[in-house]
Design a protein that fits this description.
This protein is largely without helices or strands and 122 residues long. Helix content is 0%, strand content 11%. It is built from no helices and three strands. It starts with 58 loop residues before the first strand and ends in a 19-residue tail after the last strand.
């Protein structure tokens, strides 16, 4: 089945147990929830030229997360750290899957800062 619309509102989107649910967009696809957005599945795949995840507090990923480092810029030379005075952030993850960012203030800076949401810093 296919639903082709410019805008839709619903309480829940599901596929049946034997088929995949595909959401496609020629431009932007925005998924928003007043009380959160929960995405569950045996396998979840996002494909996009660019993708943005926003949260007021935290984004929690339960399970394994795979990021292809070949697609990320390299900071091993230090060039990106001193690029036009931009603020740089490192993406960090707690043991429970909570993602958070840390502002990069020096080369080789880690995620263990006093204000991380993981609890005690070791």
């Amino acid at each position: 089945k296919t639903l082709n619309v410019q805008k839709a509102s619903t309480e829940r989107i599901t596929s049946n147990a034997t088929s995949d649910l595909n959401i496609k967009s020629d431009g932007r696809a925005i998924v928003r929830g007043n009380e959160g957005v929960f995405i569950m599945g045996k396998s979840i795949e996002f494909r996009a030229r660019s993708m943005e995840l926003k949260a007021e507090h935290s984004i929690i990923l339960n399970g394994s997360v795979v990021v292809s480092p070949a697609r990320l810029p390299s900071s091993s030379t230090g060039e990106l750290f001193y690029d036009n005075g931009w603020e740089r952030y490192k993406l960090c993850m707690c043991a429970d899957g909570t993602l958070f960012k840390v502002q990069v203030k020096s080369l080789n800076m880690g995620c263990q800062t006093s204000d991380n949401p993981c609890g005690s810093t070791r």
